Amino acid sequence: MPELPEVETVARSLEAGQGTGSTILGRTIQRAAVAWNKTVAAPSATAFKKRIVGQQVTGVGRRAKFIRLDLSEDVLLVHLRMSGDLLFGRSDSPIGKYSRLQLYLDDGLQLSFDDARKFGRVWLVKDPEDVLGGLGPEPFDPALTPKAVHGLIHARKRQLKPLLLDQSFVAGLGNIYADEALHGARLHPLTSAHTISAKQSADLLAAIRAVLKEGIRRNGASIDWVYRGGDFQNHFKVYQRTGKPCPRCATPIERIVVGQRGTHFCPNCQIAPE
DNA sequence: AGGGAAACCCGAACGC
DNA sequence: TGCGTTCGGGTTTCCC
What we know:
Layout: E1 7-9, H1 11-14, H2 20-24, E2 29-34, H3 45-52, E3 57-63, E4 66-71, E5 75-79, E6 84-90, E7 99-105, E8 109-115, E9 121-125, H4 129-132, H5 146-154, H6 160-165, H7 175-184, H8 198-217, E10 254-258, E11 261-265
Antiparallel strand pairs: 1-6, 2-7, 3-4, 4-5, 5-9, 6-8, 7-8, 10-11
Helix pairs in contact: 5-8, 7-8
This protein binds a DNA duplex through loops.
């Protein structure tokens, strides 16, 4: 077994089944501790613990913003929301101030779900579709051709920004990536979906993929005081850059609120709808 | 169908 | 220094 640091952020390595992901595979959950009841989506922390103990990790993966651990009987789904973190380390590591759930594995290993703001949730379900069923396609799904995307967008009479955040439309975009993608495609966040051209739909799809790729390459964004190791926040073009020059045309970035969400855009590159 | 608002949280950043 | 207030992230739920 590879030498382990005390704790290690696990989310990134799970999808590929590399590193921590492969280290977890095959291990059995010996004991579970729930430090914040609401972290466990349902039905109760006691039932959750009773059910998960004894199960073996048979697979790891991701769907949209959910981390997925396949267990021998059930599937454990983890949503980090804003401030959540999944940490892997030795079971004798001190329990963090914000630890909400600990899973003790064999061989002295521990998987811990930490979350300062208590927004994150975990689900233990027989059928992951109970939780994931409503999600739209993955942005990198090959079936999502420019033509298919244009068909989907054109069918919607909705502002682009809330549409991109709608997980049932396309799964996996958050506020940062929606703003950055719209800037990349030179589309104004308030544009009605059904008014955009096929070319613009294709540009939007390309921009979504480009922004996600860059975010992944930079290990994600560490915003606020929540540090997770990534540095994408130093490369935002519009997000949280109100008043600063657009990297494309130097016009000051503006901030508006759309669907209760802070929305950043360049008023010159991203032309407002009539 | 789409939009708006509130609720869930709490550390940080602000105003006084 | 120490209060009180506001903010924002993702999602669900409810209401117009």
